[in-house]
Amino acid sequence: MRLALIGAGRIGKVHAASIDAHPDVTLVAVADAISEAAEALAAPRGAQALSVDEIFDDASIDAVLIASSTSTHIDYLQRAAAAGKAILCEKPIALDLEASKAAAEAVTHAGGLCALAFNRRHDPQCAALKAALVDGRIGKLETLTFTSRDPAPPPMDYLKGSGGIFRDMMIHDFDMARWLLDEPIVSVHASGSCLVDPAIAEAGDVDTAVVVLTTTSGCLCSISVSRRAVFGHDQRIEAFGSLGMLQTQNETDTRLKVVGEQGQVEEAPQWFFLERYAKAYRQELDDFYQSWREGRAPRAGLNDGVEALRLAEAASRSLELGRVVYLEEL
Ligand SMILES: NC(=O)c1ccc[n+]([C@@H]2O[C@H](COP(=O)([O-])OP(=O)(O)OC[C@H]3O[C@@H](n4cnc5c(N)ncnc54)[C@H](O)[C@@H]3O)[C@@H](O)[C@H]2O)c1
Predict the structure, then answer these.
(1) Which sign does the torsion angle of CA 281, 287, 293, 297 carry?
(2) pLDDT tens-place string over residues 88-114
(3) Of 55, 81, 112, which residue constitutes the final position of a domain?
(4) Is the CB of 116 inside a 6 Å radius of any atom of ligand 1?
(5) Integer Cα distance of 289 and 108 in angstroms
(6) 229 by DSSP, 3-state: which?
(7) Based on CB atoms within 10 Å of each CB, which residue in 62, 108, 116, 239 is the most buried?
(8) 34 within ligand 1 shell (Cβ under 6 A)
């Protein structure tokens, strides 16, 4: 696969490293609004720094990975689809639900492969939990609990354009909830506070939130997020069912536990998503490549992006109105 990367920022660099490690995917071009950033990623890899127009016009490029700022995704998705490229696009599709739905319909109509980068579905622990659920290892799922905490809030400039904690951060948990619950969600109830930084409240957002999702069969899913965890990236899932329980754990660098007379010490969790999900990003790229090669659907597609955003929208509305929001209202 001859692949072009659009966006050479924080996540673009992670994807470039995954491409380096993949035996069948070659990075041929990089585009970024800042040409020096594109050049810095492209040159050491023997790739070209091109404009997005040049990428879409180049028939020898099979696929594009859209990792530029969220506000660019819809335009690039539509242009890449029209140019017949296979697409892997970062989440979210956009911050607006109606615009995302329209873009997803247009891209789907074009008929090519389009995967959405919900990386957690590719994490080995999360994928093993999903497989155990599907295998019936815990019987009927009754409650699903997500703990999802970032080590520290992002810069205020980023936060102001992020669309808020539900669209920016909890969107990953909404996607994982949909994937693991595997039945329709009927309602969303959100509560939120600003406990970490008053500047976040001034920007109209919350930094701490809990959401409860209820499915058609009455399964309850709670998601607890915070923009600050002093010990690192706190990412745990617990699935509880009629026959038992499944849990994923935080990752540490070596998993070494030291036990002495005073007690036992374990390493702190890995600091942030770049380390915690390093394997997931590689698996995500491989799933995209295998989908393209085999002509099958990717693990996460555009519709998943729309549906996760619908949950984020419902959570925002629930917080604003102070009541349960039913998905049929949206
Ligand atoms: N899946 C994940 O774990 C994950 C993690 C971080 C970010 N993201 C998503 O990835 C996207 C990028 O986030 P980031 O943290 O890398 O941001 P970033 O600001 O570090 O990088 C964005 C890059 O896009 C470039 N850019 C802006 N406008 C452009 C345009 N019109 N054409 C080409 N390039 C343009 C910028 O110059 C910058 O280099 C966002 O949509 C974000 O939500 C996903």
Answers:
(1) negative
(2) 999 999 999 999 999 999 999 999 999
(3) 112
(4) no
(5) 18
(6) coil
(7) 116
(8) yes
- Pocket test residue of 6, 11, 34, 35 for ligand 1, highest count of atoms within 8 A of CB: 11
Minimum CA distance residue for ligand 1 atom 4: 11
Q: Mark whether 84 and 141 lie in a shared domain.
A: no
CA separation for the pair 226, 192 (Å, rounded): 10
Nearest Cα neighbor of 96 from 68, 66, 70, 67 is 70
Decide whether any atom of ligand 1 lies within 6 Å of the 318 Cβ. Answer: no
SS3 290: helix
Atom of ligand 1 nearest to the CA of 277: 3
The pTM of the full predicted model, rounded to 2 decimals, is 0.96
Output the CA 137–ligand 1 centroid distance in Å: 39
- Are 39 and 82 in a shared domain? yes
Domain that holds residue 146: 121-281+307-329
Q: Is 150 in the pocket of ligand 1 (CB under 6 A)?
A: no
Assess contact for 158 and 244: CB atoms under 8 A.
Answer: no
CATH number for the domain spanning 53: value is 3.40.50.720
Strands 325-326 and 48-49: unpaired
Note whether 84 and 128 are same-domain residues.
no
Do both 229 and 98 map to the same domain? no
Q: Are residues 132 and 252 in the same domain?
A: yes
pLDDT for res 161: 87
| C-alpha 62 to ligand 1 mean position (Å) | 21
Q: Per-residue pLDDT tens for 141-164?
A: 999 999 999 999 999 998 988 899
